[in-house]
Amino acid sequence: MSNNETSVFHSPSDARKFLGQIARVWVVWLALLAILAFAVSPWNWAIGGVLLVALLFLIVPIQQRVDRDVPQDGFDENRASLFLGRGTRRDRALRAMLGGAGPMATALRVSGADPRWVLLRHLVFVATVAAAFYLLFG
Q: 0.85 cut: is pTM over it?
């Protein structure tokens, strides 16, 4: 299965289910960014740890979707590709499902959902970049 085929949804309800899963992941991600960017007390760090664990659990259904749809056949090129951030086909498919424009556009088209969902994707991207700049330079 190619990268373009990783965003195949079996029905409108499957696409809506994916949109719900990805929205939950992104909301927890944004909350985690806010907690960690402005953490000043031990309680904030504890809440951040809980959110991180929640994030890992929320990613599981999306990971299972990728495992079901993308064959695991090792590395495409060589072992160095792992260290360059490329990884396996499943690794790349999971990254595409979690934040790629292709799976989001396909899910929106198949489910008939409001295209303004794309704004959430842009919000997550901008917030992630802003938090990175704040943590690195602020």
A: no
